[in-house]
Amino acid sequence: MKLENILIVDPVDGEYTGSINIEDEEIVDIRRLECTPKAIVMPGFVDPHTHGQRGIDTMSAKPRDFEVWAELNFQQGVTSFLPTTVSSSFEALRKVLFNLQELPLSIVGVHLEGPFINPEKKGAQNPDFIYPFDERLESVLKNPVKLITAAPEIDGFKKLLELSESRKIKVSIGHSSATYKAMKTAFESGADRITHFPNALVPIHHRELGGMGSGLYLDFKLELIADGVHLAPEFVDLVYRIKGPDKIMLVTDSISAAGLEDGIYDLGGLDVEVRDGKCRLARDGSIAGSSLLFNNAVKNFKKFTGCNLMELSKVSSYNSIRELGIEKLGRIARGYFANLVVLDESLTVLKTFFKGIEVYKRF
Amino acid sequence: MKLENILIVDPVDGEYTGSINIEDEEIVDIRRLECTPKAIVMPGFVDPHTHGQRGIDTMSAKPRDFEVWAELNFQQGVTSFLPTTVSSSFEALRKVLFNLQELPLSIVGVHLEGPFINPEKKGAQNPDFIYPFDERLESVLKNPVKLITAAPEIDGFKKLLELSESRKIKVSIGHSSATYKAMKTAFESGADRITHFPNALVPIHHRELGGMGSGLYLDFKLELIADGVHLAPEFVDLVYRIKGPDKIMLVTDSISAAGLEDGIYDLGGLDVEVRDGKCRLARDGSIAGSSLLFNNAVKNFKKFTGCNLMELSKVSSYNSIRELGIEKLGRIARGYFANLVVLDESLTVLKTFFKGIEVYKRF
Q: Are residues B28 and B52 in the same domain?
């Protein structure tokens, strides 16, 4: 199969016009050709942090639901994602892992958000299921977990980090009261990633950088929820200017309400009220995940920052893929899997290809 | 007179070795010559925000005290500075201006810090003397005032800005509760400078940039107190990385206790307790100015940021001079006044020249 007269956007080679030749699952050839492109083609999007969509929730999904979710995500151009848990009983977490022993389609692993976080910064996490880490709890640190959000100040964090590393699980700092000193120590120990920055972190103060300042100052990679609700557009732009395109990873942090109408939804046993697309805990009005869909995250980030398409391919795909250590994804280059998203000028998804197969077409 | 075998540091031409020829008040010739320099020569330092030093206080100083202060400042390499007032009665402010009708030596004007500020962000300013602006108060907006710190949200700010502009007085935003929107409006109206950033401003939040975020995000020029007390060293470095060397101006914000022993001092009628060099209001422990001397500000900034000497000459001299619109100062170039500071490798002041005359020598 061949995609012709397109603008190819690669995070390494940049933007150029030409054609892509796909055989079986892979890109076998790319030709550079002067032409007026009919569409933009980027590496398929990657969402490392998503709790659900259109009524599906990681915590309650059955194996078939995960397949449906993956199919829904193709509409968003997402060709790799990590269903994300919330702080829950170990039984509930193990059930999720059991249901995902066979990863369907574009699901590349599970992101455990908690339970090893700081209850002071619980956000929309259920405090009944937040724990320090000890080795007896290691049964959740196993395949298909690829990413875990934890707070460096909890008891047992060092052990958690060691175990995770040995099992090729990436640790992301989040829901944490860590000060600059603790953030620096964690960074130097290898926890070089921050979950939904700077939500549920200590704000920056000019005499104590806190989690927010540490994320900006040290060489952390940052998840950003570019919905215009969690973060002001100018904050997203400021972070972009400070960190540059190589240290940002777009995430939706979407909950089951995403793509549905306003109403009351469940998140880890807590009621979430969705009004005008904004998700808040009924309990106290805390922001509780988003109703953001990935294609909008991409459009928003471009709008908020004015970045170019090559940079956009980094924050929407390449950076997350590299960090998770996944081979043959995240680029448009010979030998890579043909996970591709075809977009119009306004960055609306027209088509999605997953391993060379057209899995979504807009009209 | 000739300075030979020196490392010349100019904010525009950079660093090079050679010699400087001085006749009368001016630099008449510069020669580039390969040599092993015996000292570093930079443009004389500029302190646009200083309330006092060694027992001298702007509010109580007599004309002769200002001369002594200028001489003391030569020891710090400071060849231009603005004695800075605090919020006070108009009578008291007018007295300061009267005493400085004839500007002695290196005093280039007066900085009025208040009284047109926001009492919510008074910091160490006396709330009894904080006012909104109306035209009846314009009698303080006159020579030798060169700079005024005001809050954009006070009544009459627009008028204050217009009047100041017509009188060539620079307006600096400070002691303000302004949100992003108000900061942006003020910036666009021409108030493009911030006093002792980000002290006495609204902290940054990811959904509302406040004064701190606005200072980082918009193209404001920022005063920084690099004493390691007002601002953590890593905060100074973060600001430097974000803003670059062209938007930062070092200030001491020093009070009369600077250069003296710990004890109780006065600032605008309020008691300030100085302990271990840290100045705090006896009333509530608020930070109340600094005991920083300019040469230490320069050393600290270099240490905190690792900037090069050319960049250091910008933040310690050139940026402030340019902004105040003063001619023939801030550079080491032909035709400029020979206001120079001679430093050793550790950036300790060895000699100071003011208009070609050696006004300080260390040993």
A: no
Q: Which of B47, B253, B266, B284 is catalytic?
A: B253
Closest chain B residue to the Cα of A227, Cα to Cα: B207
Q: Is A124 annotated as a binding residue?
A: yes
Q: Do the chains contact at B230 and A237, CB–CB below 8 Å? A: no
Report the CATH number that the domain containing residue A5 is assigned in CATH.
Answer: 2.30.40.10
- Can you point out the beta strands (E) in chain A? 2-10, 14-23, 26-32, 39-43, 45-50, 52-53, 56-57, 78-85, 110-113, 145-150, 170-173, 193-194, 221-224, 248-250, 263-267, 270-275, 278-281, 340-343, 349-354, 357-361
Same domain, residue pair A66 and A33:
no
pLDDT surpassing 90 at residue B92? yes
Q: Does B285 touch chain A (CB under 8 A)?
A: no
Per-residue confidence (pLDDT) for residue A289, from 0 to 100:
86
Domain match, B229 and B207 both: yes
| Co-location of B262 and B348 in the same domain | no
For A137, B108, B307, B327, the CA distances from B313, given in Å and listed in that order, are 56, 19, 10, 17
* CA A143 – CA B28 distance, rounded (Å): 75
How far does the CA of residue A204 sit from the closest CA of chain B (Å)? Answer: 7
Token digits of residue A196: 């939904």
In the Cβ-directed half-sphere of A309, how many Cα atoms lie within 13 Å?
21
Nearest one of B322, B320, B360, B328 to B49, comparing CA atoms? B320
The CATH number covering residue A232 comes to 3.20.20.140
Find out whether A175 is annotated in a ligand binding site.
yes
Neighbours of A261 (CB within 10 A): 8
* Closest chain A CA to residue B203: A205
| Domain of residue A21, residue span | 1-43+330-363
Q: How far apart are CA B344 and CA B325, in angstroms?
A: 30
Mean pLDDT of chain B: 96
| Chain A contact for B130 (CB, 8 A cutoff) | no
Q: Which two tokens stand for residue A295?
A: 């294609």
Chain B residues within 8 A of A242 when measuring between CB atoms? 241-242
In this structure, are strands B145-150 and B170-173 parallel, antiparallel, or unpaired? parallel
pLDDT digits (tens, 9 = 90+) for B200-218: 999 999 999 999 999 999 9
- Condensed to tens digits (0 to 9), the pLDDT of residues A48-86 reads 999 999 999 999 999 999 999 999 999 999 999 999 999
How large is the ipTM?
Answer: 0.92
- For B253-275, b/e burial (b = at least 16 CB within 10 A) is bbbbbbbeeeeebebbebebbbe
CB contact A241 to B (< 8 Å) = yes
Count structural domains, chain B: 2
- φ and ψ at B312, to 5 degrees? -65, -35
Residues A123 and A19 in one domain: no
B199·A206 Cβ contact <8 A: yes
Query: Are B58 and B128 found together in one domain?
Result: yes
